[in-house]
C-alpha cells in the first residue's frame, strides 16, 4: 500500500473515533442525561461536529486522495478501490459545507430537539414553530451547498442517507404502492378482524424485559459488544467499539416492546456484522439507511410477525410472561401481532399501513424544502393527508405533526428510507428463503443462525462496497421493486383475515 493510502486510512480511523464519541454523547442525551445538562451537551456536540468536519475537510485528505487515486495498484485492489470511492464521495460532500454552517446546524439541532420534546409533551406546536422555521432555513442552506446544478433540494439531502435515490424515482415507486396499500387496507376492513386481546394484557416491566432480552440474545446480538437501555423512542447507535440499542416498555403492550427490540436488534446485528478490520473506513460502514432499515424490518416483521416464529417463541413467552399467556396460544398471538388498524402514530403502525405514514411525511418535507409549504401550514396539511391516505382524523398535533423526532434533529430527506427498508427487507427475505431452502422450518425451531449468517455474508460484511441499488441486484438478482413486499403483505393478511 502507498503511504498516501495508509495515511488516509489512519486519518479516517481517527475521525471515526470522534464520530463514535459524538454518538455516545447523543445516546446519553436520550437515555440517562439529566435535563439540566442540556445546554452544555448542545455545546459539546457542536464542538465535536466542528472538529469532525475540520478533519473530514483537511486539505491533506485532498492530496492523499489525489495521490492514491492515481495509483494503478490501488485501483486493482477491490478493497482499496472501494474505500477510495467512498472517501472521495465523503470528502466532496463535506467540503461543500462551510464549517460555520455545520456548527450552527449541530447546535440548533440539539436545542431544537429539546424544544420539540417539550412542545410535544405540552401539545404546543406554536412553541416549536420558530425552531422548525430556523431548522428548515438551515436545511435549505445545506441543500443549496450540496446540490448539483438543477438538482432538487430534497434530492441533495436524501442522497446523504440513500446514495443515488431521488424524489422522482421514489414517487414512481410510491404512487402505485400507495394505491395497492390503500386497496389492501380496504379489503381488510371487510374481513374478520383477529382477536388482539393479547396486546392489552398487562405484564410487569421486568418480565417484559427478560422476555425481549431472551429473544434478542437468540437472534445473536452480542452483549459483550453492545447493550440495551430505554428511551422514549427506541433507536440503535454505534460508538465504533460497541452497539447501543434502546427499547421501551408499556405495561399493557408486550408486543410493542418485542417489536421495538427485534427492530433495533436487527439494526444492531448489521452494525456488529460489519468487518472489524475495516472499522473507520467506508468498507466498515453500512451501505445506506434504507439497507440499515431493511435489516431491522426483516427481523421485526418477516421473523417476529411470522406464524413460524410464534410456534418457537410461544413456550418462551409462557416461561417469561406467566399468567398473561393464559387463554392464548401461538396461533392467536401471531394473529394479534398482525392486526391492521389505521392509526395516528407511525412507530405504532402495522405492516400494512406503515408506509402510508411515510408517504405523508415524504410529500410534506419535499414541499417545505421547495418553499411551497410554510411551517405555519404544516399541521393543517398533515391532518388533510392523514384523512386522505389513512381515512382518520388527527385530533391534536402531539399525535400529528409533532410526533416524530426527525425534523427537530435535522433529518430532512430521511423518512423514505423506512419504506425503502420495507421493500428491501421483503426482497432480501424472499432471496434468503430461496437460497436457504425455506425460512419457516428454521424459525419454527428457533434456529436463527442460518438467516443471520446469510445476512452477514451477503450484506453486512460488504459495508459500502456497493451502492444500495447495486447491492440489491447483487443479493437478490433483481432491481428494487415493491413486488416482494406486496406479495408478502397480501399472502399474510389474507390468511390472517380469512380472505383467501
Ligand atoms: Zn429502524
Compact description:
The protein is mainly α and 500 residues long.
What features would you describe in this structure?
This protein is mostly helical. It folds into two domains: 3-146, no CATH class; 167-496, Neurolysin, domain 3 (Orthogonal Bundle), CATH 1.10.1370. The chain is built from 21 helices and three strands. The protein has helices at 3-31, 38-56, 59-69, 72-76, 78-96, 99-122, 125-146, 153-161, 167-190, 205-219, 254-273, 289-303, 307-321, 330-336, 354-370, 378-390, 416-435, 440-445, 449-458, 468-476, 483-496; strands spanning 226-230, 236-238, 243-247. It has a three-stranded mixed beta sheet, sandwiched between helices. α9 packs parallel to α21. The N and C termini lie far apart (61 Å). The site of zinc ion has 4 residues, from α11 and α12.
Provide the gyration radius in Å. 23 Å
Compute the number of helices. Answer: 21
Shape field? globular
Ligands bound, unique: zinc ion
In order across it, which strands form the biggest sheet?
1-3-2
* CATH topological fold name of the largest domain: Neurolysin, domain 3
- The helix content, as a percent range, equals 55-70%
Level-2 CATH architecture of the largest domain: Orthogonal Bundle
End-to-end Cα distance: 61 Å
Strand content: under 5%
Tally of individual domains: 2
- Give the low-confidence spans: none
Main sheet, how many strands, which sense, barrel? 3 strands, mixed
Structural class: mainly alpha
* SSE run: HHHHHHHHHHEEEHHHHHHHHHHH
Strand segment tally: 3
Amino acid at each position: 500500500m502507498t503511504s498516501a493510502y495508509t495515511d488516509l486510512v489512519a486519518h479516517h480511523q481517527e475521525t471515526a473515533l470522534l464520530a463514535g464519541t459524538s454518538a455516545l454523547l447523543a445516546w446519553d442525551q436520550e437515555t440517562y442525561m439529566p435535563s439540566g445538562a442540556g445546554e452544555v451537551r448542545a455545546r459539546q456536540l457542536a464542538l465535536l461536529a466542528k472538529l469532525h468536519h475540520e478533519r473530514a475537510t483537511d486539505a491533506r485528505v485532498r492530496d492523499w486522495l489525489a495521490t492514491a487515486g492515481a495509483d494503478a495498484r490501488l485501483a486493482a485492489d477491490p478493497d482499496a478501490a472501494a474505500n477510495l470511492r467512498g472517501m472521495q464521495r465523503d470528502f466532496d460532500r463535506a467540503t461543500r459545507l462551510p464549517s460555520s454552517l455545520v456548527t450552527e446546524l449541530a447546535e440548533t439541532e440539539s436545542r431544537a430537539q429539546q424544544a420539540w420534546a417539550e412542545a410535544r409533551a405540552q401539545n404546543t406546536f406554536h412553541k416549536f414553530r420558530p425552531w422548525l422555521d430556523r431548522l428548515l432555513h438551515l436545511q435549505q442552506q445545506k441543500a443549496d451547498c450540496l446540490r448539483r446544478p438543477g438538482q432538487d433540494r430534497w434530492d441533495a439531502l436524501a442522497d446523504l442517507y440513500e446514495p443515488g435515490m431521488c424524489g422522482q424515482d421514489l414517487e414512481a415507486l410510491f404512487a402505485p404502492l400507495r394505491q395497492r396499500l390503500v386497496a389492501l387496507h380496504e379489503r381488510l376492513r371487510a374481513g374478520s378482524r383477529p382477536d388482539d386481546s393479547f396486546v392489552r394484557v398487562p405484564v410487569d416491566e421486568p418480565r417484559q424485559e427478560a422476555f425481549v432480552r431472551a429473544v434478542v440474545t437468540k437472534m445473536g446480538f452480542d452483549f459483550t459488544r453492545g447493550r440495551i437501555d430505554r428511551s422514549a423512542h427506541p433507536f440503535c447507535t454505534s460508538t465504533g467499539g460497541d452497539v447501543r440499542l434502546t427499547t421501551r416498555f408499556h405495561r399493557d403492550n408486550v408486543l410493542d416492546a418485542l417489536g421495538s427490540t427485534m427492530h433495533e436488534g436487527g439494526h444492531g446485528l448489521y452494525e456488529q456484522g460489519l468487518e472489524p478490520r475495516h472499522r473507520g473506513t467506508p468498507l466498515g460502514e453500512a451501505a445506506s439507511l434504507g439497507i440499515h432499515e431493511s435489516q431491522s424490518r426483516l427481523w421485526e416483521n418477516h421473523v417476529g410477525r411470522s406464524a413460524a416464529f410464534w410456534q418457537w417463541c410461544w413456550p418462551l413467552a409462557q416461561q417469561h410472561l406467566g399468567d398473561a399467556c393464559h387463554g392464548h396460544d401461538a396461533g392467536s398471538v401471531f394473529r394479534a401481532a398482525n392486526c391492521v388498524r389505521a392509526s395516528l402514530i407511525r412507530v405504532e403502525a402495522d405492516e400494512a399501513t406503515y408506509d402510508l405514514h411515510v408517504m405523508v411525511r415524504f410529500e410534506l418535507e419535499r414541499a417545505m424544502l421547495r418553499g411551497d409549504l410554510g411551517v405555519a401550514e404544516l399541521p393543517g396539511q398533515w391532518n388533510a393527508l392523514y384523512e386522505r391516505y389513512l381515512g382518520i382524523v388527527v385530533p391534536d398535533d402531539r399525535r400529528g405533526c409533532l410526533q416524530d423526532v426527525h425534523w427537530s434533529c435535522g433529518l430532512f430527506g430521511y423518512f423514505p428510507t423506512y419504506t425503502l427498508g420495507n421493500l428491501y427487507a421483503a426482497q432480501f427475505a424472499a432471496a434468503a428463503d430461496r437460497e436457504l431452502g425455506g425460512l419457516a422450518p428454521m424459525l419454527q425451531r428457533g434456529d436463527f443462525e442460518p438467516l443471520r449468517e446469510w445476512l452477514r455474508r451477503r450484506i453486512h460484511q460488504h459495508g459500502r462496497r456497493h451502492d444500495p441499488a447495486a447491492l440489491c441486484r447483487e443479493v437478490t438478482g433483481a432491481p428494487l421493486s415493491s413486488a416482494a413486499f406486496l406479495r408478502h403483505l397480501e399472502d399474510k393478511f389474507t390468511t390472517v383475515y380469512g380472505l383467501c
